[in-house]
Amino acid sequence: MIKNRSKRDFIKKMGLSLTGLFLLNVFYFRKAKSNYKPKVVIIGGGVGGASCLRYLSDYSNFIELSIIEKNKNIQTCPFSNLVIGGLKNHEDIVFETKSFYRKKINFVNDYVNKIDIDNKKILLNDKSFLNYDFLILSPGISYKWENIFGLKKNDPKILPHSWDGDKNLHSFKKRIDDLENNSTIIISSPDYPYRCPPAPYERASLIANYLIKKRKKFKILILDSKDSFTKKKLFMREWDLFYKNKIEWVSRSDGGQVVEIDSNNKIVKTKNGQKYKGDIIHIIPDQKASDLFFQSKLISNDWCNVNPVNFELNGFKDIYVLGDSIDAWDMPKSAFSANSQSKALSQNLVNRILEKEYINPAFLNTCYSFSAPERAFSISSWYRLNSEKNRIVSLGTKESDVNASDYQRKKETIEAYGWYESLTKEIYG
Ligand SMILES: Cc1cc2nc3c(=O)[nH]c(=O)nc-3n(C[C@H](O)[C@H](O)[C@H](O)COP(=O)(O)OP(=O)(O)OC[C@H]3O[C@@H](n4cnc5c(N)ncnc54)[C@H](O)[C@@H]3O)c2cc1C
Questions:
Q1: Which of 31, 53, 206, 285 has a CA positioned 20 to 30 A from the CA of residue 258?
Q2: Quick count: other Cβ atoms within 10 Å of Cβ 393?
Q3: CA gap 199, 268 in Å, rounded
Q4: Which domains does the chain carry?
């Protein structure tokens, strides 16, 4: 009896391994005889997508690589606050997608309407489609307009959110330029999780710096949907030094959460019923994963849940997601994080295609913020997978010194510029 079962098991195992061997042979046979290359398609040419393209293009001998991006040029969000604050020109943060044409890469400049999962097809706006064997998605974020009553997408009566690569920085900057003396600017900062946690406070600082240079009298009121924020002590110290009585922060508990807007009269109402009137209103809306995931019925919650070893979307074989669209546990939504994730994703996708073992990934994030032209500070964290390999956990964090010298702030400014230059050179150069 035992013998028979062992025999049956052995035959079963043999059968399975022969099937495996057969499939492997078919794979290599197709590769060798018909030059079959698995089709890898990337959606989104922002930081996550362009980083994957950079690493995977080294393997274009055995994969067929395509990238789809809706914009002709890429405007980065990192350093966009420096453009608003007059420290950089707009053209300094815009990159041509011509780098996507290198090394036999198929670049499609179109908007993806939907992914047909059953047929492994990507449906484009011009009614054509693309097939994939493996799909990588890094399409960024979309907005929860409905969280603030009266808030409308593209309302011309308020400042544009300028929270993604769309080209509205000019109009943002012009309206700051046109501000009358003694104006009040209201900034509504979103609730977690959202793209680049310190960026609302950096934006407030650099607007303040710009208006002081223009000798304007003004007040910036940050109404916050949170009770604290990243690098709070650092920002508060900088505001105390340079923008005393110019920037005021109202926490959620103190009634900072904006719940209603009347853009005609430039009034916002907060959760405790208080009304604030501004000359300019800037709402940074609450966020969720890109609309594409909802249009394609890939998720029903706000963010994508992935396997942190290879970034495969839970419940969907051969679909991988990275960057701001995912819930990356302890990792914040940043360009540095997206770039770090892209290395693990690309390496493990190649390992999967070559049927090699997955690497156990490690990640890094450093996020620089500016309070003034030569005053940058940062927070750095490093990450690994937990022992169950089902979440990304922080191993430690290092923040700049709150009382750092001018020299240290300047040194970090040089590092921040260096980081931006090497990232953009790496992925768009
Ligand atoms: C003001 C601001 C300052 C920031 N500063 C920093 C910083 O200093 N350091 C840092 O690390 N991070 C910073 N970030 C965060 C950083 O920009 C994002 O975390 C990063 O861009 C995320 O990369 P991603 O690939 O997920 O999304 P994105 O870079 O936004 O890329 C998404 C791409 O997909 C394309 N796309 C979307 N939908 C479609 C579709 N349906 N069809 C075709 N194409 C599509 C978009 O056009 C876009 O190019 C900042 C963000 C903001 C808002």
A1: 206
A2: 13
A3: 21
A4: 2-140+290-428 (3.50.50.60), 146-287 (3.50.50.60)
Cβ count within 10 A of residue 391? 13
Q: Look at residue 96 and tell me whether its pLDDT is greater than 80.
A: yes
What is the pLDDT at residue 102? 67
Specify whether the CB–CB gap between 162 and 84 falls below 8 A: yes
Give the C-alpha separation, 81 to 87, whole Å: 9
Determine the longest span between alpha carbons in the chain, in angstroms.
94
Q: Which residue has the tokens 């892209």?
A: 342
Q: Which residues line ligand 1 (CB under 6 A)?
A: 43-49, 68-71, 74, 77-78, 80-81, 111-112, 138-140, 163-165, 195-196, 199, 290, 292, 323-325, 333-336, 338, 367-368
What's the one-letter identity of residue 212? I
Residue 193 preceded by cis peptide, ω within 30: yes
Q: Where do we find the tokens 């839970």?
A: 314
Q: Quick: pLDDT tens for 33-82.
A: 457 899 999 999 999 999 999 999 999 889 999 999 999 999 999 999 99
Q: Strand, coil or helix: what is 218? A: strand
The answer to whether 144 touches 151, Cβ cutoff 8 Å, is no
List residues bridging with 223 in a β-sheet.
188, 250
Output the residue whose Cα is nearest ligand 1's atom 30: 140
Enter the tokens of residue 173: 């900057």
Residue 349 scores a pLDDT above 90:
yes
